[in-house]
């Protein structure tokens, strides 16, 4: 009797319907309001077929910002055809602050914390789909514990740490990266390690990075990767600059990107920061396609 009561198809269906009912009941009018702007950005992204995504520091914004207004005007004039996004090592809060400081309108997409988070639209709606995608086999506490006894690693301030990003400062020296890899791999950790500017070490889920986030966006919104223009200046941009998207390395790039010279679809601009992005737009005729 007990088995037939709990394990028939009828009882299973009844339990499923009840679970759905409880979920629907939890979304009254007050909670549904937040979906309106998200629907708006979703409709916009669904119509776009081209996208420009740029790093912020020393790429979009830097010591020379005389071409920033010109770039923003170009993007605004072509807004109906081309999306605008940023991909940054900054947290979303920090990214929002610096964009507002320099008069940059809210991007369609913010890929923040080196690709471990995605936000949409002017209301910065958190991308839970991306979180679900990257969370597999991620064990933050385990990794932090395994690396705690390495004296050459300095755990960064708490405000830079994220659920899916562990950040350290580390001066370069032979074998340090291999020591970290050996420790983590020996303990069956799944991760992605990014070292940039010869001092910043970020450890992310193995599915997360700026480049992987862009590929995710292309798949989710059905935008061909060849229709992206990505812009960067340093090592944590390297992965997103490789592959199918059109890419530009701005003139004030960090030497760690020299290895990309000669690669297909990677253009090294002469101009710096926003001027280098404009140069690449003209090189690729990105506004005329």
Task: Please tell me about this protein's structure.
With 289 residues, this protein is α/β, with parallel strands linked by helices. The protein has three domains: 2-33; 49-127 and 208-284, Rossmann fold (3-Layer(aba) Sandwich); 140-204, Alpha-Beta Complex (Hypothetical Protein Ta0175, Chain: A, domain 2), CATH 3.90.1070.10. It contains twelve helices and twelve strands. The protein has helices at residues 2-7, 9-25, 29-32, 35-47, 68-77, 92-101, 128-134, 140-147, 176-186, 210-220, 238-241, 273-284; strands at 50-54, 82-87, 109-112, 117-120, 125-126, 154-155, 166-169, 192-196, 200-204, 228-232, 246-249, 266-268. The longest helix is centred in the first third of the chain and has 17 residues, at 9-25. The termini are far apart. Mean pLDDT is 89; it is low at 1-37.
Question: How would you summarize the topology of this molecule?
Answer:
Elements (H helix, E strand, L loop, with lengths): L1 H6 L1 H17 L3 H4 L2 H13 L2 E5 L13 H10 L4 E6 L4 H10 L7 E4 L4 E4 L4 E2 L1 H7 L5 H8 L6 E2 L10 E4 L6 H11 L5 E5 L3 E5 L5 H11 L7 E5 L5 H4 L4 E4 L16 E3 L4 H12 L5
Parallel strand pairs: 1-2, 1-10, 2-3, 10-11, 11-12
Antiparallel strand pairs: 3-4, 4-5, 6-7, 7-9, 8-9
Q: What's the helical proportion of residues? A: 25-40%
Number of strand segments = 12
Largest beta sheet: strand ordering: 5-4-3-2-1-10-11-12
Report the biggest beta sheet as strand number plus sense, adding barrel if it closes.
8 strands, mixed
Which key terms come to mind for this protein?
8-stranded mixed sheet; 289 residues; Rossmann fold; 17% strand; Hypothetical Protein Ta0175, Chain: A, domain 2; alpha/beta; 3 domains; 4-stranded antiparallel sheet
């Amino acid at each position: 009797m007990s088995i037939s009561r709990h394990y028939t198809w009828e009882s299973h269906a009844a339990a499923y319907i009840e679970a759905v009912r409880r979920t629907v009941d939890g979304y009254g009018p007050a909670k549904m309001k937040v979906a309106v702007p998200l629907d708006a950005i979703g409709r916009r992204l669904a119509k776009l077929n081209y996208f420009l995504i740029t790093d912020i520091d020393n790429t979009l914004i830097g010591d020379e910002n005389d071409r920033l207004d010109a770039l923003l005007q170009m993007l605004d004039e072509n807004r109906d055809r081309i999306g605008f996004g940023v991909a940054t090592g900054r947290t979303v809060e920090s990214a929002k602050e610096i964009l507002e400081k320099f008069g940059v309108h809210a991007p369609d997409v913010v890929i923040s914390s080196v690709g471990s988070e995605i936000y949409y639209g002017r209301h910065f709606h958190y991308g839970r789909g991306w979180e679900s995608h990257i969370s597999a086999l991620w064990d933050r506490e385990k990794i932090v514990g395994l690396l705690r006894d390495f004296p050459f690693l300095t755990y960064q301030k708490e405000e830079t740490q994220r659920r899916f990003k562990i950040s350290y400062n580390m001066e370069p020296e032979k074998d340090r990266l291999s020591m970290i890899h050996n420790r983590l791999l020996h303990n069956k950790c799944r991760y992605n390690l990014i070292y940039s500017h010869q001092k910043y070490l970020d450890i992310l889920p193995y599915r997360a990075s700026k480049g992987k986030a862009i590929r995710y966006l292309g798949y989710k919104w059905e935008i061909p990767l060849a229709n992206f223009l990505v812009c960067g200046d340093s090592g944590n941009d390297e992965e997103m600059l490789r592959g199918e998207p059109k890419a530009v390395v701005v003139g004030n790039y960090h030497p760690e990107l020299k290895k990309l010279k000669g690669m297909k679809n990677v253009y090294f601009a002469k101009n710096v920061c926003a001027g280098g992005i404009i140069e690449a737009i003209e090189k690729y005729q990105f506004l005329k396609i």
